[in-house]
Amino acid sequence: MPVPYTPVADIPRLVADARAAYDAGFTKPLAWRRQQLRAIHDFLVKEEKAINEALFKDLHRPEAETMIYDIGMARNAAVHTLEYLDDWVAPERVSGESVAYAMDRLEVRRFPLGVVLIIGTWNYPINLTLIPLITAVAAGNAAVLKLSEVSVNTAELLVRLLPKYVDNSAIKVVYGAVPESTALLEQRFNLIFYTGNAVVARVIMKAAVKHLTPVVLELGGKSPVIVDKDANIPNAVKRIMWAKSMNSGQTCVAPDYVYVHKSVAAQFYAEIPKVAKILYGNDPAKSELYTRIVSDRHFNRLVSTLDAELKVPGVEVVYGGNRDAKERLIEPTVLRGVTQDAKKHPVMKEELFGPIMPVIEYDDVDEVIAAIRAKGEPSLALYPFSSNLKFIEKVVNGVDAGNVIANDLIMSLAVENLPFGGVGESGMGSYHGKHGFDTFSHKRSVMVRPAGLEILNDARYPANGYNRRGFWYKVVEILLFRPMPTDTSIAFSTFWRRNISPLFSPAPILIGLALGFYASIRARAAGLISH
Ligand code: NAD
């Protein structure tokens, strides 16, 4: 029995309930957060078989891939978060770097944002919905999770089973398509975390304007690979083909197209059939280990782009090209004779998001960098391959992109300490590990000053301190505002920070003693103390 979409009419009440739970303070205690993280982890352990089956139905995805890229990564995120949560919520003490703040407590504290909306996508539907959810609840938020309708079986499983594990008063799961998303976007949230394409991202941003809601956009784009003449070609081909055919190319950080230096192009092409055989045996179409395209719409989009490209003079298939509409299968397909010119080459227009890999041969890496920059659309990933560090640095510094991996692909996503996110057309904001915790938190500055010791403030009150000719004002002015030429001011500031500021750590005690001493002299002078 198919699971029905969440009724649109129920959506305002559902969001209001999540807000009521947040306002009642259910989500803020660390105990609640830990409980939810454990519950999500529990779901991922106990429902492993069901998740694997659902993803097999949706994408014909082999178990090992689902285990690593969906279930495993989400489990690791839960465990990592549970391990570090105490550190992340602890107030972060900072230095005021000035005598003016020597008596103060200065802290950055992370507070929850409120009720967050997480809109997930279909290609890794567990990873891309549950890791944001893990991060949201770790930061103490209530959350509404909107599942993608495209990976039907996984969405149905999540909507049926996840509520059995998590606290339903503060974590709501919504299943549906555009009308349900639209109804959600009319509600007030404190953050919208969207994963998907750049067209819908614009719809999300427009909707967010109404309530001045911040957005995190995790998008994609045409992520390039640039293979240098000094690259280890057999290893490069193996890694690139692995990343391109994983999930049948339906990965946001998949290599979209590959620049190969002319001098090594022949070797690059020669390696491709060998690698395809290593990955999927003699016939990927018959391999149980090869994922299918998610829907007929995406299958037809990919096939028509490929067929249009094959009509361009000079374009040839190096490997693959076969497809099976009934199975929604497209072989890993490598094309040569392609150029960067998107007007001539249909494969260079949009993000491919499928197992088609155009190869562009090049002479001069400066021209490659200029051509990618000229598009003005930074991709989510950038992959230089070379044994020469200077080449890698040149590409890293020359091309904008969300994330870079040199001599490999995809792998940085699993490193919890690296932020994952795009820039420009590939998105805004980032997450994973502590970076995600900060994204789902409000960083509040908290300054606690002594209630007494008014003498320290005297200089700021107009009648006392605003006499700029006074000696003490001059001292304060030099210490705080440094009315000197810029370089002298920087040198003074550096000297102060390195040599004088560290002396302030015992300042509260010293100043306390000095003020006590001063007060006793004043009291003695006023005759309040006689001995
Ligand atoms: P999709 O069609 O599933 O859309 C994502 C979500 O947006 C779904 O929940 C859907 O219901 C909702 N949606 C669709 N149209 C909408 C509308 N008009 N108004 C409101 N909501 C709407 O996903 P997709 O866009 O096909 O996903 C593929 C794209 O996502 C690719 O560009 C890929 O690179 C990108 N992606 C990015 C990441 C990342 O982490 N940066 C991960 C995976 C995919």
From TrEMBL:
Superkingdom of origin organism: Eukaryota
Entry-linked Pfam families: Aldedh
Active site (UniProt): 218
CDD domains in UniProt: ALDH_F3-13-14_CALDH-like (cd07087)
Signal peptide segment: none
Transmembrane segments: 503-521
Keyword set, alphabetical order: Membrane, Oxidoreductase, Transmembrane, Transmembrane helix
Positions of the Aldehyde dehydrogenase domain: 4-446
PROSITE patterns linked to this entry: ALDEHYDE_DEHYDR_GLU
Entry similarity comment: Belongs to the aldehyde dehydrogenase family.
UniProt xrefs under PANTHER family: ALDEHYDE DEHYDROGENASE, ALDEHYDE DEHYDROGENASE TYPE III, ISOFORM Q
Identification of the protein by name: Aldehyde dehydrogenase
Organism (species): Polyrhizophydium stewartii
Lineage: Eukaryota, Fungi, Fungi incertae sedis, Chytridiomycota, Chytridiomycota incertae sedis
